[in-house]
User: Fold this.
Amino acid sequence: MAARYLEILRTRHAARLLAGTLVGRLPNAVAAIAVLLFVRAEGGSYSLAGALAAVYGVSNAVGQPVLGRLVDLLGQPRVQLPAALVSALGMAVFAFTGIGALALAYVLMVVAGFFTPPLEGGLRALWPTVLRKEDQVHTAYAMDAVAQEVMFTVGPLLVTLCVSLWSAQAALLVLNVIGVLGALSVVVSRPSRAWRSAPREAHWLGALRSAGLLVLLGAFLFVGIALGSINVAAMSYADDNGGDVTYGWLMAAIGLGALVGGTVYGARQWSGAPERRLRMLVTLLAVFYVPLTLTPGVVAMAVLIALSGVFLAPCIACSFVLVDRHAPRGTVTEAFSWLVTTFTVGMSVGTGLAGPVVEWGGAVSGFALPGVAGAVALLVLLATGRVLAATGSGAVVEVASENDRNGAPEPRFSTGHQA
Assistant:
């Protein structure tokens, strides 16, 4: 298992790109927590903190595919670093002005969220240029998904550490400076500077004109809903079984499950079509959500939640392979950014749905939502199996020598115009 990951990390530029991307995404990963703690320190209400964090999240969801398309058109350094600087500047101004002027605070959250650089999609566009074997790229996708789980586990700890050592204002400033340094590390690297997207057909829909990509986005919207609803249901369960400490352990358990599942998944070479593999993984994901409705004791509940997370990272890693296959030429960064956006929106929808469900039927009803959402995601994949399997194999694909080796053809567009 270790040998496959070490082989990738020893490849020139791979470790730097992975580490730089994770560090660069740190402000985004902890934004909600950092904003909550800062607003509370400023004397604001939880409602205000939640509203500001929500504005940041929505702006981020809108900005990712927009900036991703710009990356495909202009290259990574011209977009990623300026976006990181503008986003950090917006958060820094918010840290100094506080919540005294609410209109300004909301504008700054829009700026900070919208201009969050699409480093995640950018890294996945770079993997095929750094790793020359297809199976290595697939392993890198799994390693990427695992590394995200580590970041979302360590990130909140770093926020609370900064707050305890200095202040909530310092936490906002320090974490965003770290994020800019991470983005800088990526964009000055040789693969990022040399990367160019494939020629693309001019079309206002961009990556969204791929039917296969739309299927993936539809399925992962419901996977995101499942994960978002678990967060709320677990909080309701914890209120009756130990409070915040229990909630922390449950959230750590689902992260640990995803970490183990992603690590094992990426350590072996898989045969067969990734479309069938994704359907199997989503099936297992949905099935392992069902026992959560039993709501047993804390220890058993932690085990069940950990098991429910085992197939999350493999599902995400497998989806990366399919996004890469279905993204129209010249839109690979935008396509990956759409997946990030859809998953984020799904989590927000899941959180919103779970609130009234939990108030109506308690934690048991809340834990029923992930199973339902997982089943709907599976139905989407089953109903559109032919669309997802059709990678345009009947079209003539011209082999190019560009850095972006995504060979997804566009049989529906024959003009020679490039965006």
In short: Confidence is low (pLDDT under 50) at residues 392-419.
